[in-house]
Amino acid sequence: MPQAFQVPRGTQDVLPPTSTAWQHAEASFREVCHRYGYEEIRTPVFEEAALFARGIGDVTDIVSKEMYVFEDRGGRHLALRPEGTAGVVRAFIQHGLAAPKAVWKVYYIISIFRYERPQAGRYRQSHQVGVECFGAPGPDADAEVIALNMAWYDSLGISDHGLTLNSLGCPVCRPSHREALQSALRAVAPQLCETCQGRIDRNPLRVFDCKSPECKALLAGAPSTLDHLCPGCQAHFDTLRTTLEALELPYEIDPRLVRGLDYYTRTAWEVKFTGLGAQDALCGGGRYDGLVEGLGGHPTPGIGFAAGIERALLTLAELGIEAPGALPRGVFVAGLGDKARGRALLLAEGIRRAGVRAETDYFERGLGAQLRLADRLAARYAVILGDDELASGQATVRDLESGVQEAVALDAVPEWLRARCVA
Ligand code: AMP
Asked: What's the 207 CA to ligand 1 centre distance in angstroms?
């Protein structure tokens, strides 16, 4: 026998019935986005690799170590998207969507690809929902995007948000923080891990992402961006905080929250769920006022977030929350005997055409076995067709919840069921 194929390392199949939970998570997200006035965008799964290098930053782990890059047959240097924002920004610029006093609000549901070491909650192909809002410079947009983010968790039943917030400043105030941080880091450089030592000159903010307890202890008193905010960034942050309080969205300030991506300015936030262990980040978001211009567009402020679908579902499992059935329950049409089985097939098709889910038996089972199958398929009604029913022209329709049966004229069955099964 040839060796059986397996999914590539770090990827997984989503099989039924688990796919119902995915559909539920995605449908809730679409519904929430609709409420906040966001429309769907779909961009290609691969883009020019340089887009991500410029948009995310080529010193980040995502670009330097984790991207799936390849050359296509035409010699183009491409990459599977490692995140959603860069492609959306590229589309915004390419289609000339910037306009004065106009806001463009889009959402996406995508797979992302990162060559990371797989572990519980971390995959090489994972899935995100996210939004981007272009053109709105003020903290009201930050509050709206954070509220949308929390509304999705609420709609899933994750009510303890664990929201942490920080401000990373802007090109005006970042240099003074960077300098202060670099000199503090140089003072303890020999005691820092090798990775952090390498970050001092290239990307000092990223030292706060280090998981090593020694580095964490050394960084405890390191200067934070919050101590260096310029008046504009301070006012933006203060107003956002007041607005979140007015919206009753609890948060904690975490001056060590820096996000892995380079393009963030001012607001950054994260949601964590501690029950998930090492991979506890549910989502990350922030403002990226410099990104559109950095990728060649008109200067346009932007803000957005991306949230992992797998981790949202792992959180639901951890909380013992089951996804509701995605679609209305259906009907089982039980045919008994050759003639009735032929008629059952036609009737099932008529019921489906009337908009109701209908299933039949494929194995000439007896009535008891067919009704047990109807039960397993969570059917709401069973339609029973035997020789007697064919002779009388009336099917027996059994309500599988109450057990009550009634006779319904064969031709009227699809409509009878439609009236009861389709909301
Ligand atoms: P990021 O784009 O890194 O800010 O990621 C946003 C969210 O996507 C994270 O908080 C996770 O929930 C999810 N995520 C990112 N990378 C992975 C991965 N490799 N496996 C599973 N989820 C991921």
From this structure: 19
